[in-house]
Amino acid sequence: MIRITELRLPLDHIPEALPAAIIDRLGIAGTDLLNFEVFKRGYDARKRDAIVLVYTLDIQVNNEAEVLARHQHDQHVRVAPDTNYKFVARLDAPVEARPVIVGFGPCGLMAALVLAQMGLRPIVLERGKKVRERTKDTWGLWRKNKLNTQSNVQFGEGGAGTFSDGKLYSQIKDPHHYGRKVLTEFVKAGAPEEILYVSKPHIGTFRLVSMIENMRTEIESLGGEIRFEQQVTDVIIEKDQLRGVIVNSEQELRTDHVILALGHSARDTFEMLHERGVFMEAKPFSIGFRIEHPQSLIDRARFGKSAGNPLLGAADYKIVHHAKNGRGVYSFCMCPGGRVVAATSEEGHVVTNGMSQYSRNERNANAGIVVGITPDDYPGGPLAGIAFQRQWEKRAYELGGGTYEAPAQLVGDFIKGKASTSLGDVIPSYEPGVHLTDLATALPDYAIQAIREALPAFDRQIKGFNRYDAVLTGVETRTSSPLRITRGENLQSLNIRGLYPAGEGAGYAGGILSAGVDGIKVAETVAIDLIKSCTAQ
Ligand code: FAD
């Protein structure tokens, strides 16, 4: 099979143009093209009046070796890599020792699935509820201002990405094609097949819910167990070796292999692990606001007259500005045609994030506009970033009026430094509602200054970005984990054997896809270690 990359055709090309372009590109006779498949389809919208589709294609031809030899100096014509997933082990008969996974977000889910598929019968402990019950609790905050601290946007089956835009792309290096395994499993569980070939796949919230249930069923059918409302409250460590965990402060579960897939909001668990001496260190993350514009503004700015073309979908953006005070300001987790959501897991805090449905057809586009910060901004050790996040989340709660409404301000007023008193045409989507105010004290001064400078600069990239009545809602603090539970080359904690920190909470992923990929990577290492220790006994 031959892979061609970077084959570019106009957005409105007819279907026959694709095989014709392949024949032309390879310089073969039409009869020598046996078959082709689109591996990826992206677009290049840098010239918005001449948008092109960019294909990666897998192709079968007559005389493949000869065609490849003729193109040996062409980096865009190569042998197609084998992206099928290969298990590192597969057991015919179960072994007694069972790995334990803490957390059932994308990282824990993929780790559990792969371990179950290998025959290792994992036990998953998840502090939150099953996804359908969790959905009700999450809506409880959005509709009735009532937070359940164990069952919310951050905690419960499916993890933090369940109520999300379901974007499934990542910049990580993935030489073993684990990302393909994640996407393939998602499709098996009910995700749209196109996620395998579009360059910026997304699923949206509703589909994620049923997919997660289907994946749970598969894990259980292979002998795995998923135990809900089971919070790991302590760890049993003997001579630097993990020997088990304590669940809900009472029940002991013995095991020598624990994957910690906690997510970035498990602050109580981080505190407990720190107290037990598990090595961790503060790491950089970002803070800021969510911004909302009409989606039609973003579509026009990015796609010009092609706005609305179904092959392009709702437009997204990625923008960066280097502020004079040395801070980087950038867009984060942009959600086309979606809504801003209340994402706190702690009482008396307000946190924003974004989600959408598969159709991405809601009125507003939203994105985090965030400023990079480092441990120098919150000195005080590994847990200082959590204290810093809490400080600004509490401040947002106060500025929002103390009811879980979020503080908000029009962009024009924010730049002028005056409190907003009424909305313009952009109606904020945040539930349970926004409280118009002045956001000047919602973040540290350096962040406010940097965002004030960045918004007009972004307007030069996306016309209308700085419009007066675009809405800022605060605060965006859970952009990634504020700490890293550092692991060594064997993927175990630097100082505790048998403890495998993984995913976003441990500082090794940022997003659904990369968390799933990390879950697979860690699961493979656990499988090899566990089988070795069983055969050594
Ligand atoms: P998580 O998904 O956070 O899962 C951790 C799990 O561990 C949770 O279910 C939690 O309940 C459980 N847990 C924690 N502590 C304990 C304990 N002590 N005992 C037992 N269980 C415990 N990423 C994208 O790539 N695309 C998007 O479109 C996107 N949109 C997002 C929208 C929102 C609203 C949010 C909140 C996040 C979004 N993200 C998105 C980020 C993405 O969700 C995370 O990067 C990803 O979920 C991290 O996966 P994880 O498995 O490492 O952790």
From TrEMBL:
Domain FAD-dependent protein C-terminal: 284-479
Pfam family of the protein (one): FAD-depend_C
Entry superkingdom: Bacteria
Transmembrane portions of the chain: none
PANTHER family hit by this protein: FAD/NAD(P)-BINDING OXIDOREDUCTASE, FAD_NAD(P)-BINDING OXIDOREDUCTASE FAMILY PROTEIN
Name of the protein in question: NAD(P)/FAD-dependent oxidoreductase
Lineage, uppermost ranks: Bacteria, Pseudomonadati, Pseudomonadota, Gammaproteobacteria, Oceanospirillales
